Amino acid sequence: MDFSFTPEQLEIRDLAMKFARNEMMTKAAQFDVLAEMPLDILQQAWSLGLVNTCIPTQFGGNGFSAIDSMIITEALAYGCMGMNTAIMANDLALLPIVIGGSDEQKKRFLTPFTESYKIAAFCLTEPGNGSDAGGLKTSIKEDGDDVVINGNKMWITNAGYADLFVLYGTIDPALKHKGITAVVIEKGTAGIEVGKKEDKMGHRCSDTRAVTFNNVRVPKNNILGGLGKGWSIAMKTLDHSRPMVAASAVGGAQCAYDHCVKYAKERVQFNVPIFNHQAIQFMVAEMAMKIEASRLLVHKAAWLLDNHQSNTQLASYAKAFAADSCMQIATDAVQIYGGYGYSKEYPVEKIMRDAKLIQVYEGTSQIQRLVIAKEIFSRS
Amino acid sequence: MNIFVCVKQVPDTETKIVPTADAMFIETSSIKWIMNPYDEFAVEQALLIQAAHTGSTVTVLRVGSSKDTEALRTAMAMGADEAFLVEAQDNLDSYSIAKALKAAIAKSGKNPDIILTGKQAIDDDCLQVPQILATMLDIPSVSVVVGYEGSASEATVKREVEGGALEVYGVKLPALIACNKGINTPRYASLPGIMKAKKKPLTTLSLADVGVSDADRRVKYSNFQLPPEKPPGKKFDATDSTKQAGLVKEVVGLLRTEAKVI
Ligand SMILES: Cc1cc2nc3c(=O)[nH]c(=O)nc-3n(C[C@H](O)[C@H](O)[C@H](O)COP(=O)(O)OP(=O)(O)OC[C@H]3O[C@@H](n4cnc5c(N)ncnc54)[C@H](O)[C@@H]3O)c2cc1C
Description:
The complex is a heterodimer.
Chain A: H1 7-34, H2 39-47, H3 66-79, H4 81-100, H5 103-109, H6 111-115, E1 120-123, E2 139-143, E3 146-157, E4 164-170, E5 180-186, E6 192-197, E7 208-219, E8 223-224, H7 230-266, E9 268-269, E10 272-273, H8 278-306, H9 312-337, H10 348-358, H11 365-378
Parallel strand pairs in A: 1-4
Antiparallel strand pairs in A: 2-3, 3-7, 4-5, 5-8, 6-7, 9-10
Chain B: E1 2-6, E2 9-11, E3 33-35, H1 37-52, E4 57-64, H2 70-78, E5 82-87, H3 94-107, E6 114-118, H4 129-137, E7 141-150, E8 154-160, E9 166-172, E10 175-179, H5 191-197, E11 202-206, H6 244-257
Parallel strand pairs in B: 1-4, 1-6, 4-5, 5-11, 6-10, 7-10
Antiparallel strand pairs in B: 2-3, 7-8, 8-9
The structure holds flavin-adenine dinucleotide (FAD).
């Protein structure tokens, strides 16, 4: 048992935190209001190696462990949860290629992401199928050497800027999970129609849109793992991406907490700094406990991955616990700031809006509990 | 060119400083160390000079404890080629540090064409090591440098003086240049840089290796104390315009009798 980071991990964290503090935090409020992708910041993050942490070294990546990528994600979300969503969505889209792609596909699709800053989108959710992803309706039909894709995707992060879409469809809805197929679609392929940017509560700088696929034709060698192999790729992707999303919750919560500790020492009411009031102390103590517990769950879920052990249950513990904690912490942060907390002039208001999404995407907090219960009862 | 950079590791600016129980130094066990911010400008300048002169090497030097080699690793992750650490307790005085640096440069086997440092370390703010080192090496030095342009044999440097004016110097190399904020924008150490830095050579020397002993000390620390807490400021309510003239008189009087600044 060893809870300490390696010297490299400390350096990785310091760099990511320095970048988050200097480049992201300083512009977070501005891009939240503008609701625009901070392309320069994303580009700079890429040039420092903070983006696409999942790409293996053979294909030009930096060879990060899952724990390394959690450390980076936590730091970036500390800087701005919205900007981190734009960064993390790349990993979410590239992971199915890392997990299910052939070496030829990895070289073709992943390596360009290591040569310049490119953007990827992960297309699973549909207007009628969110939590019940297995019931998705987008059709994938074989046609000679190609497949033809038809359907609607909803809430697709990075859609407006994507160089690459990784899409889940079905070769036959009657086959249920066994029909689900993952396919890579490159930008510019005829028939991709990107909708208007959604006007969201939080993560406002990230680009979320509906995407329609009308007779989109791609060669069969863009299919990951073969027809009908998509579901198992999706599940393995979630084992990695859910802890990452949980890590982003830890980053957001840590940021809210740090603001609160500072503010509670500065703000005077009843002639004493408010941290002297026990009610404030209790809220801050609660925050500290939940952040540490969330982080430990994230690291354990990632450690299991790095050690090639099943982590589905831990990944869901981490995702649900960290997301719910982040929401509670952000809400309490606004409480500690009082009226000032409700104002956009102060940073915790945005964190509270951003926190909510973490309980929703990558499987809602309810779905995480379903996964956990299923694991418990299928093994007992 | 043989480019040398001296870096110091200082407590993170957010660290709460506490004197040790015997008041002989500060408590270092819980400190998070960072590279002295002015030294980041020196490392960046070294890398810029290296990029302009193919075949140049950048060697970083540090005198200090080996518990954490943050500053050297950061410099190598930014792009420096190799590093020398002279292992020593963190409370050496400026003279001993300069002497150790001079000997470490000699041990590197390379003749320096330029030595870059920060203008000062933000922990003890002594502002002495660069000048002592340059004197020991018998080379020119310019401090508070905010602009640098040079060839392999000479440089034109701008230094900032009181009031924001600039002095411009022509210097023959080898020289020591102590950098100030504004000379450049330090790059981040990239993640691939961090990974590569692991494989770069870091040589550790002892104080004995560089011939520094307690006898070299010019300064001995004897009593570390926190500065007294600042008394709260005085506020004067000047909203009532009829009372403003009287207030001015009162403030001037207090500046004379109480603050004793005029
Ligand atoms: C900003 C944003 C970005 C997103 N980015 C992406 C992306 O890049 N790619 C992508 O594919 N998707 C993305 N999503 C979609 C996201 O993953 C889904 O919104 C999420 O999975 C929930 O699906 P839904 O919205 O259809 O809600 P629903 O599934 O309709 O759920 C509604 C409510 O019912 C609950 N519920 C549903 N089923 C059950 C059940 N069996 N038991 C108990 N409760 C249940 C849910 O927990 C929720 O509270 C994004 C969403 C948002 C808001």
